[in-house]
UniProtKB/TrEMBL annotation:
Its main location: membrane. Keywords: ATP-binding, Cell membrane, Membrane, Nucleotide-binding, Transport. This is Peptide/nickel transport system ATP-binding protein. The keyword Protein biosynthesis does not apply. InterPro entries: AAA+_ATPase, ABC_Ni/Peptide_Import, ABC_transporter-like_ATP-bd, ABC_transporter-like_CS, Oligopep_ABC_C, P-loop_NTPase. Belongs to the ABC transporter superfamily. It is a peripheral membrane protein. Pfam families: ABC_tran (PF00005), oligo_HPY (PF08352). It is found in: Cell inner membrane. It comes from Variovorax soli. GO terms for molecular function: ATP binding.
Amino acid sequence: MTTPTLIVEGLQTRFFTRAGVATAVDEVSFTVGRGQVMGLVGESGSGKSMTGYSMLGLVDAPGRVTAGKVLLTQRDGEVLDLLRLAPRALQAVRGNRVAMIFQDPMMTLNPVLRIDTQMIEAVRAHHRVSHRAARERAAAALAKVGIASPHERLLAYPHQFSGGMRQRVAIAIALLNEPDLIIADEPTTALDVTIQGQILAEMQALCRASGTALIWITHDLSVVAGLADTVSVMYAGRIVEQGSVAEVLERPRHPYTRGLIASAPSRNPRGRPLAQIPGMTPSLLALPPGCAFQARCARADAACCASPPLVRLPERQLRCFHPHAPAAPTTA
């Protein structure tokens, strides 16, 4: 077992609106070891991105992190609770020891500044290095993500790049300071398959070589299967199943996890309609009592009106009163 870089315990984020209180992240807990990759998967609106924002103090009003711990162990052994840091101390950690790659690169890049200005500033904000050394580090980061002629491209503005190229620049900025933890929020969505494969391989190699922990937020199970060591499946703000990638994706036990995997086109026989999970994700303002998945689950009964406890099993954890048998096939 690798030394944990990140321990998240009981993370809870709520939005206090006029229509009521919405719990976007509900008692989320997980651990990411040094050099490990954890996939965080689920439908849109399940709370994946909000979990990442909550860890870094990026939740705007009327949202607020109301409970939990986010413990980051740095390479020097110092442990920081990110939720307890003062704003200035947290600012020193973000972009340095913890980096986030957003789905939309324009959330990362300033449209009126050249790429070199933005990348050099990101280095020198946290390290006492010369302008020239920071520039060389920026060029090396661009080369890592497959941008040709990196020294020349540093002189360009964001609007001179395509959407996919801007996303690669955003990924390069996250790699600049060799952080202890990277949170990647679907960063390869805008990239073509070839470049996506190159970046996934580069990110995996980085984690292995440098010991950087990586949380990869996505809805693409095929990416998780090839990239991650562990996977956590979210539904309506809660993690409903987590464990090793091989165990969870090959032998899912939670009905929601099985539904996600069965709906993947690659698993569907030719000529047969795609499998789908019936119904829709419930509103966070009107979650049913007990298991939030019960209205869409064929195995639900009266017991599901109570909140399912966390069940710890070999190789995985899950929240379900009626999990599937361990040897059940994934396409049944």
